[in-house]
Amino acid sequence: MEKRLIECVPNFSEGRNQETIKQIAKEIESIPGVRLLNVDPGEATNRTVYTFVGDPDAVVEAAFRAVRCAGELIDMRKHHGAHPRIGATDVLPLIPVSGITLEECAEMARQLAKRIADELRIPCYCYEAAAFNEKRRNLAVCRAGEYEGIAKKLSTPGQEPDFGSRPMDDDIARTGCTVVGARDFLIAVNFNLNTTSTRRANAIAFDVKEKGRPRREGNPITGKPMKDENGNTIMIPGTLKGTKAIGWYIDEYGIAQVSMNITDINVTPLHVAFDEVCRCAQNRGIRVTGTEIVGLVPKRTLIEAGRYFLEKQHRSTGIPESDIVDIAIKSMGLSDLRPFNPREKVIEYLLEDAEKQPMLADLTVRDFANETSRESPAPGGGTIAAYMGALGAALGTMVANLSSHKAGWDDRWKEFAESADEGQDIMAELLHLVDEDTAAFNRIMAAFGMPKTTDAEKAKRSEAIQEATLYAAEVPLRTMKAAMRVFPLCKRMAEDGNPNSLSDAGVGALAARASVLGAGLNVKINAASLKDRDKALSLINEANSLMESANKEEKIIMDIMRQLDPKE
Question: Can 437 be counted among the known catalytic residues?
Answer without folding.
Answer: yes
